[in-house]
Amino acid sequence: xxxxxxxxxxxxxxxxxxxxxxxxxxxxxxxxxxxxxxxxxxxxxxxxxxxxxxxxxxxxxxxxxxxxxxxxxxxxxxxxxxxxxxxxxxxxxxxxxxxxxxxxxxxxxxxxxxxxxxxxxxxxxxxxxxxxxxxxxxxxxxxxxxxxx
Length: 149
Hints:
Blueprint: H1 7-42, H2 47-58, E1 66-67, E2 70-71, H3 81-84, H4 91-103, H5 122-136
C-alpha cells in the first residue's frame, strides 16, 4: 500500500475542504448576526447605559477590573456585580449599595486591595449602575461560572 497522493487528489481535497469550511463559516456568521439582532431588539442600549459606559471608560475601570472576562484581573469581575449586590431581588437596594460602595472607596481594610476614590457625580453614578445592570442582563452563556466573579 504505497499509494501516493496525486495532484488531482490533492486538488480535490483542497477544494472539498475549502467548500466545507466556507459553509461552516457562513452558518456561524448567520448565527452570530441573528443572535446580535435578537439582543439589540430585546436588550437595547439606553442613553443612561451609554453614559455609564463612558464613565467606565473615563475612569479606566478596566485597568483593574474585568467585565465579561475582558480587562485586568487585579480587582473583581463587574459583569455580574449587579447580581452579587442583589439586583434581581431588590433593584433599589442594589442600586444604593453599589453607589455607596463606589463613594466610600478606599475602604481602608487591612490586607485588601484598595480601590482609589473617584469623585463621580450622582447622575454619573446612576448611569454607571445602569451600565452594570445592563451588562448583567447580557447572555454570556454562564460566564463567569461563579457569581462571585
